Amino acid sequence: MIELVLGGARSGKSAYAESLLKRSGSNVVYIATAQAFDQEMSERILHHQLQRPAEWQLIESPLVLAETLDSLSNSEHYLLVDCLTLWLSNHLLADESSLAAEIDRLLAVLARMSCRVLLVSNEVGMGIVPENRLARRFRDEAGWLNQRVAQIADKVTLVTAGMPLVLKGQNL
Amino acid sequence: MIELVLGGARSGKSAYAESLLKRSGSNVVYIATAQAFDQEMSERILHHQLQRPAEWQLIESPLVLAETLDSLSNSEHYLLVDCLTLWLSNHLLADESSLAAEIDRLLAVLARMSCRVLLVSNEVGMGIVPENRLARRFRDEAGWLNQRVAQIADKVTLVTAGMPLVLKGQNL
Amino acid sequence: MIELVLGGARSGKSAYAESLLKRSGSNVVYIATAQAFDQEMSERILHHQLQRPAEWQLIESPLVLAETLDSLSNSEHYLLVDCLTLWLSNHLLADESSLAAEIDRLLAVLARMSCRVLLVSNEVGMGIVPENRLARRFRDEAGWLNQRVAQIADKVTLVTAGMPLVLKGQNL
């Protein structure tokens, strides 16, 4: 089963996603896509780590997310990917030209996962058009990626101020 | 009947709107407000065109939208306006001083349409206050315009990651 | 009872909040957090003032909101705070170092209010990451503040294009 949890910055989407996994009682693999480029990012990563149960397995996968998921496709674990938009951003900064192929590969892997996967992603398209070209490209790609994942997802939830709103599927 | 489909950039709002018109089985007039100022915009316009049925009539109306709609007010066709925020932006760039009058004229025409009209519009107010004065003006005007159209609309839908959420009216 | 009304810029959140208070028939204290630094802000404040009933009491509280609310905690009035994000912004500009303590104080006061309080706040996290450090800080703090207030609120509503969507609680 594929679940997508969407939300803006500081919307509480990660905490909401984590609460779902905690309540499930499942063994969890937490797949982190964040890369600590600077002090600010390191602090954000640490802030998130401190809120997660110590027994959750951690895999850091800033770029090869498709391969990571593929290797776990028959896992008994409940997989939490946090977050899709950071993975997208990592690829955009690393090699813009291979982005389309990477996204296709990720979608193909997601479509054949037989374990439970929850993906967290940012909603970034509800502000003014950014003046920066790369920011516009990122905004476009993030919106398209969210649409494609939502389409194959069994459940899509939008989180605002910590409050979940189901956009697709039932409260499972 | 007036319908408003709102969404952020790359939210899938246009594709959702088009799916509604395709399913209706109606004859459609597609009213495009986009102007191709540059390569990037030309590509976006082409991208949208390729996804629309060839039998839909196309009217390009980047500025005189009120007049275009007025001339079709008794049409048997289902009219799709994509999108309101581009029309607003075109007027803001062309002549800021006449904007208020243009918006009043559009609202007056919408209120007396006797055919079915679906308008697509951008939600642009959920980010940080823009530093650019014109961007702030645009954000204000877009928000106010969306409110006024929503008020006279029979149905308002917000699209996020391709998923529709009805804010006003029923699933018609 | 604590109510939170969230929305983007020009979403109609203030007008929606005010309509709730008007319909309640209660005596209202309007607590304004806005400060007029410039012409543009003065116009926005005036625009809002003209839409409010003349009999509503007005308290301007750009910084000492916790103390203002505390002094009214047993009031028979229905209190409207418009808005939380301006109060946050005022503190961030005045003294960034005391912000955390100010927020804790406000939350503590809100938790023990025995009168009806409606707080209006901006959703600012659904755009692209701002390039400006202070804007990123503001976006983070606003998101976290909204989450904390939502958590203790009896009702949370998101307004888009003037249309309310209940995220928590019932239509009271």
From TrEMBL, chains A, B, C:
Enzyme Commission designation: 2.7.1.156, 2.7.7.62
CDD domains xref list: CobU (cd00544)
Keyword ATP-binding: yes
GO BP annotations, alphabetical order: cobalamin biosynthetic process
Keywords, comma-separated and alphabetical: ATP-binding, Cobalamin biosynthesis, GTP-binding, Kinase, Nucleotide-binding, Nucleotidyltransferase, Transferase
Gene3D superfamilies per record: P-loop containing nucleotide triphosphate hydrolases (3.40.50.300)
Reaction catalysed by this enzyme: adenosylcob(III)inamide + GTP = adenosylcob(III)inamide phosphate + GDP + H(+); adenosylcob(III)inamide phosphate + GTP + H(+) = adenosylcob(III)inamide-GDP + diphosphate; adenosylcob(III)inamide + ATP = adenosylcob(III)inamide phosphate + ADP + H(+)
Top-level taxonomic group: Bacteria
Positions of the catalytic residues: 48
SUPFAM superfamilies given in the database record: P-loop containing nucleoside triphosphate hydrolases
Transmembrane segments: none
InterPro entries registered for this protein in UniProt: CobU/CobP, P-loop_NTPase
Root EC class: transferase
GO molecular function annotation: adenosylcobinamide kinase activity; ATP binding; cobinamide phosphate guanylyltransferase activity; GTP binding
Function: Catalyzes ATP-dependent phosphorylation of adenosylcobinamide and addition of GMP to adenosylcobinamide phosphate.
Record's protein name: Bifunctional adenosylcobalamin biosynthesis protein
Source species: Corallincola holothuriorum
Organism classification: Bacteria, Pseudomonadati, Pseudomonadota, Gammaproteobacteria, Alteromonadales
